[in-house]
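FAQ

Q: What does a record look like?
A: Structure on top, sequence underneath. For example:
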C-alpha cells in the first residue's frame, strides 16, 4: 500500500521562527526571478528586486552586459535605486553623493581628499550572483550547492523551446498584489490542480479532464493541458479567446514551477512569470510580469485581452481560497492534513521545505 502524504503542520504557516529560518535557509539561497533582458534594452536601464530585507539592482552597462549588485551604497548603506527606470552613465547616492559607474566601480566621491584610507578600487558595489537563462534573469543572494537554473530546467528544454523565450518582448506592466496568507499557502494553491473543479469553474471548462501534471527533479514541476475544441458551455471570454487564437498557435495552457516560489505561465498568445514573495508569516506579495512575441494582428490583441479577463477572474477566486486557508490554519480543530495524489506538486514543495529546515517543521 502506498504511504500517506501528511501535510506540514499548521504552525509552519504562522510561526515567526520558521519564517526566519525560511528566509535564511530557503529564500536567500535559491534562484529568484527578477525579469527578462528585454526589460533592460539600453545602458543604464535597471530593475530593483526586493526580497524581505535584501535588495538587488540589475542594470545594463555601457558594454551591453547586465550585472547585479546589492542595492546599498558602500559609504553609509543608503538604498541607491527604487523600482525600475534608467540611470544613464552613473548611479548616484542621494545621501552623500557617492557615484558608481554602470559596471559597479566607485567613480566619484565628494570631498575625496579628506577620506583617510579610502581605496576606491575596493569600494565598488558588491555583486550579486546572476544567471541569465533564455533571456530571463535570476539572482541568488547567497551561494548554495544547488543546481543552476539551466540545470533545473534542462529536462524541459525541448518543450519550452516552442515559446522562444529569448525573443520575447515586454507585454504590459508588472502587476503586484498582496494577500493575507503565508507564502506556502499561496504557492501550494498555485501549483496544484486538485481544487480546479470546485474553486475555478472557468478553468474547469477550459481543461475538463485534460489537466495533467508531472513532478521532476531539483524542485521543478509542470502542469496544464490542451484547450477544448468545442465552444459549447464556455463563457463569453472563453469562447472569444478560443475563436480568436490564430490557427498556428498551439491550443494548450501550461505551467512550470521552480522551488520555492517561481512559476512560468505558458499560453499560446503570451508568457508570464508569477512569483510569490514572502513579506511576513501571514502576508505575501504576488508579483507577475507578462511577455509576448511581437504580433500586432488584431485577433492576437483581442485574444490577449480575453486571456486577461479569464485570468483576472481566476486571481479573484484564488484570493478568497488562500485567505480562507490561512484563517483556517489558526483553528484548534485542524493541526495537519493529508494530501491527495493529485497534490503531488504540493508534496514536492513541502518536502523541499522539510529538507531545508529539518526538525523545525
Amino acid at each position: 500500500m502506498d504511504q500517506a502524504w501528511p501535510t506540514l503542520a499548521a504552525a509552519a504557516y504562522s510561526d515567526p521562527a520558521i519564517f526566519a529560518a525560511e528566509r535564511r535557509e530557503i529564500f536567500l539561497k535559491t534562484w529568484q526571478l527578477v525579469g527578462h533582458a528585454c526589460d533592460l534594452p539600453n545602458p543604464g536601464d535597471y530593475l530593483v528586486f526586493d526580497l524581505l530585507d535584501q535588495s538587488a539592482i540589475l542594470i545594463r552597462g555601457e558594454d551591453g552586459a547586465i550585472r547585479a549588485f546589492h542595492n546599498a551604497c558602500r559609504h553609509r548603506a543608503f538604498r541607491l535605486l527604487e523600482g525600475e527606470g534608467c540611470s544613464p552613465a552613473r548611479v548616484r547616492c542621494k545621501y552623500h553623493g557617492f557615484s558608481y559607474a554602470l559596471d559597479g566601480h566607485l567613480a566619484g566621491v565628494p570631498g575625496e581628499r579628506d577620506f583617510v584610507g579610502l581605496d576606491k578600487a575596493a569600494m565598488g558595489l558588491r555583486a550579486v550572483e546572476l544567471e541569465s537563462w533564455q533571456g530571463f534573469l535570476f539572482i541568488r543572494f547567497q551561494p548554495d550547492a544547488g543546481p543552476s537554473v539551466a540545470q533545473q530546467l534542462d529536462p524541459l528544454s525541448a518543450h519550452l523551446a516552442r515559446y522562444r523565450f529569448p525573443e520575447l518582448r515586454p507585454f504590459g506592466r508588472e502587476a503586484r498584489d498582496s494577500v493575507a496568507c503565508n507564502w506556502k499557502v499561496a504557492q501550494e494553491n498555485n501549483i496544484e490542480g486538485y481544487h480546479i473543479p470546485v474553486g475555478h469553474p472557468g478553468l474547469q471548462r477550459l481543461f475538463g479532464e485534460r489537466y495533467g501534471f508531472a513532478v521532476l527533479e531539483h524542485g521543478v514541476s509542470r502542469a496544464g493541458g490542451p484547450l477544448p475544441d468545442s465552444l459549447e458551455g464556455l463563457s463569453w471570454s472563453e469562447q472569444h479567446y478560443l475563436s480568436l487564437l490564430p490557427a498556428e498557435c498551439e491550443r494548450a495552457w501550461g505551467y512550470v514551477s521552480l522551488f520555492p516560489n517561481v512559476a512560468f505561465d505558458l499560453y499560446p498568445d503570451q508568457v508570464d512569470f508569477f512569483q510569490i514573495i514572502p513579506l511576513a508569516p501571514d502576508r505575501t506579495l504576488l508579483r507577475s510580469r507578462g511577455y509576448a512575441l511581437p504580433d500586432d494582428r488584431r485577433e492576437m490583441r483581442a485574444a490577449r485581452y480575453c486571456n486577461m479577463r479569464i485570468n483576472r477572474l481566476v486571481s479573484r477566486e484564488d484570493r478568497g481560497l488562500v485567505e480562507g486557508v490561512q484563517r483556517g490554519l489558526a483553528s484548534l480543530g485542524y493541526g495537519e492534513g493529508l494530501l491527495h495524489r493529485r497534490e503531488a506538486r504540493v508534496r514536492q514543495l513541502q518536502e523541499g521545505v522539510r529538507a531545508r529546515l529539518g526538525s523545525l517543521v
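Q: Is there anything notable about this one?
A: The chain has two domains: 1-29+151-361, 31-143.
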